[in-house]
Design brief:
Length: 137
Amino acid sequence: MSAKYLALAAQGRMQTGVPLRQLATLCKLSAAKLPELAAALECGQRAGVVRRDGDQWCATLSQAACEQLTLMLRGVCLYMDGIHEETDSVAVVISKPAEPSQLVRALNSTLEGTWDFIAQVRCFQTSPVGQRVDLQS
């Protein structure tokens, strides 16, 4: 459903039937966007927001309800345009567990046979008495 259309309905301009092309003009949409507007209106019709009479479209909800939907759709658009990301980013950190471990056995049986990220970065752990213990040995 188009937020622009609902904004017009909230103003009471869609209580009587309006042709699709005229709706596009009122919503300041180009003729190239007519199929998208028609699809949005058909979706709105299935949801009971608008009604189609021949080639005319009109709102079925009150002006107050259209105002609320307008604000909600604008919020959704802001979220989709500025916040939402299609892909998730994940950081995974694996530390070597204590022996015996199925994970250690599985890693050791790989082609490399070692924890090569530990070999690349020198890792130390502080013991309770403050001594540094090399984890690679």
